[in-house]
Design brief:
16 strands; 196 residues; four-stranded antiparallel beta sheet
Length: 196
């Protein structure tokens, strides 16, 4: 079976995040790094499902909340948004919230369901140069089937992105060559090796 996994190797969580990169968390209480537009309500509660005992929520279409993250070390980071894991009241959390992630390559809009999993919802992995970047959540509709409330609590950038974890090596044959002139092409006189 050539698709069977024979070896599994670890990929370090910091790989691709740049040497010395640290996890970055921006909360709705981080001074000068959080703002809203439109109508938002603040909910203070000492509850393990609310990050740092406060969150903001809206029921207004097109209302936005923006976090500003300062990246000191360039690299790839996984971007996550914190959402209270469950809300079984009046339609629940937004299942179609729109996050705009500004990064080194431009900006990317991601649709995400709030209130799922353990609180942190992955928005994907992106490259960041050193500098300041904004991440914005927008309420995309007025409730109904997609949930009544959109929340804004905290965002997190984890160095290494989705590349961290394990890499499985299947039982197969691989061919490599000694690319002596580093042109990416197999040229006459360059040796081919079979790796089992």
């Amino acid at each position: 079976d050539l698709s069977a996994t024979v070896y599994s190797v670890s990929v370090a969580a910091g790989g691709g995040g740049g040497g010395g990169a640290s996890t970055i968390i921006v909360d709705d209480q981080t001074a000068g790094a959080f703002s809203t537009s439109g109508t938002w309500y603040t909910y203070w509660v000492s509850h393990p499902d609310v990050y740092n005992a406060r969150l903001n929520y809206t029921m207004s279409k097109d209302a936005t909340a923006t976090w500003t993250a300062s990246v000191a070390t360039a690299g790839t980071y996984e971007v996550l948004a914190y959402s209270w894991p469950a809300l079984n009241y009046n339609g629940g959390w937004d299942r179609d919230a729109r996050y705009t992630i500004n990064h080194a390559g431009g900006s990317t809009v991601v649709a995400a369901a709030q209130g799922t999993g353990t609180g942190w919802v992955s928005l994907g992995s992106f490259d960041f140069a050193a500098g300041s970047y904004t991440i914005t959540v927008k309420r995309n509709n007025n409730g109904g089937q997609n949930g009544t409330y959109t929340n804004a609590d905290a965002i997190k950038l984890v160095p290494g992105g989705a590349g961290a974890g394990a890499a499985n090596i299947a039982q197969a044959h691989y061919f490599v060559w000694d690319d002596t002139n580093s042109d990416g092409d197999l040229d006459s006189g360059e040796d081919i090796y079979l790796v089992n």
